[in-house]
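@channel sequence for tomorrow's demo:
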Amino acid sequence: MAEADKPPDFWSWLGAAISLVLGLWLLIAGLRTLPLARGDLLVADHVGPINYSAPLMRVSSGRSGSTTYRTQDIPLVALGDNQQIYRQRYYRPARGLWVDGIDRLDSGQQVRFLVDPHRQLVYEATSRGKTFLAYDATAETLTSGARRAFLFGFALLGSVAWHLWPLASRYWRERQAANSPTP
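structure tokens (generated this afternoon):
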């Protein structure tokens, strides 16, 4: 390959830097998306009926534009392990999930929610032996999102190696040529 055909080092460094930042960001996002263990969640008890809103969420889906989905905003008060009371907040199920049946509760019926107060996420909802939202469904949804983020993050980190390999090999060849004795 002729010297004029090679891309300038600047573009390789820029591509590597962008891929590195995006790859690390996706890996961190994947770690933050992983579900909490059931024992780390807080309990939020609520007595029916529950008034909740169902806003329409709009998210970007890349080149195809944006997509929308409906979610639930459920007002709950969570109780911590040390009896710390978290003020009333709106909690949502994971994207694509729905707490089904909470609009048909009897007056005075108690519903137990397992929530993550930091991400304001509902993991499980049960009442009288009936499960409205299962922990396993939430954990699987969050885990699949984390796997996707890990996959793309590692792919971008692989592209960093792809961008930097020619620069590193050229550097080592020039360094070996400079250190070798000339006859």
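heads up for whoever presents: The CA atoms of residues 52 and 74 lie 5 Å apart.
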